[in-house]
Amino acid sequence: MEKEISQAVIRRMPRYYRYLGELIDAGAERISSNDLSARMNVTASQIRQDLNNFGGFGQQGYGYNVKHLHEEIGKILGLCEMHSIIIIGAGNLGQALANYSDFEKFGFTIAALFDVNPRLKGRKIRGIEIHMLDELEAFTCRYKADIAALTLPKSQADAVANRLVDLGITAIWNFAHVDLDLADQNVIVENVHLSDSLMQLSYNIAKKKNA
Asked: How many helices (H) does the chain have, and how many strands (E)?
């Protein structure tokens, strides 16, 4: 039986990957858990526990080989595979996602955007065409997409999500202001609430002022 990894550990893995990438760019060859702890504001013990969930990768007295650990975490995160994304909703947020070229560095390619606004039909964002939502079925018949990013009003999210499930989408990156749960349909959903992050920032500002 495969070991269940906590979501807290999974949330830290992309941070490890990002920091290790920066170390590679800086020419570092190895790093200890203590040095990585200082960079990440996570205890060295927590880092070792997190990585031991996947095999450890370190050597006592040597630390971690930066390039090797970066590659292994990339494999854990599935970054060795290419993923195709379609964006549903070509408003400001949808266009901002399409304009973010760094996605390609991690193996995520945006294939198309979809919207209901006829004034957007045929427009291109960084070379990526905007299609009408009623073209979704025809497009997915021609082009296999793994992930759909939802950047549309919450009133439309459930209906569009179920439509995507019927089209074979296996994962949804949901920016609509509603939590989607499609586990019973074997679809992975990552619900992203930008306002939650902003409220956490607001809390920390208030906490600092009151300290």
From this structure: 8, 9
Q: What are phi and psi of 141, to 5 degrees?
A: -70, -35
Would you call 90 exposed, middle or buried from its count of C-beta atoms within 10 A (0-12, 13-18, 19+)? buried
Count the Cβ atoms, other than its own, within 10 Å of residue 17: 19
CA 40 centroid distance within chain: 19
The pTM of this model reads 0.84
Q: Which domains does the chain possess? A: 7-76 (1.10.10.10), 83-196 (3.40.50.720)
Q: What is the pLDDT of residues 55-95, one digit of tens each?
A: 878 666 678 899 999 999 999 998 888 899 999 999 999 99
| CA–CA distance, 175 with 179 (Å, rounded to integer) | 9
Low-confidence ranges of the chain (pLDDT < 50): 1
By the 8 A CB rule, do 83 and 106 touch? no
Burial (CB < 10 A; 0-12, 13-18, 19+), residue 136, is: buried
Q: d(Cα 211, Cα 152) in Å, to the nearest integer?
A: 39
d(CA 142, CA 84): 13
With beta carbons less than 8 A apart as the criterion, state whether 121 and 90 touch.
no
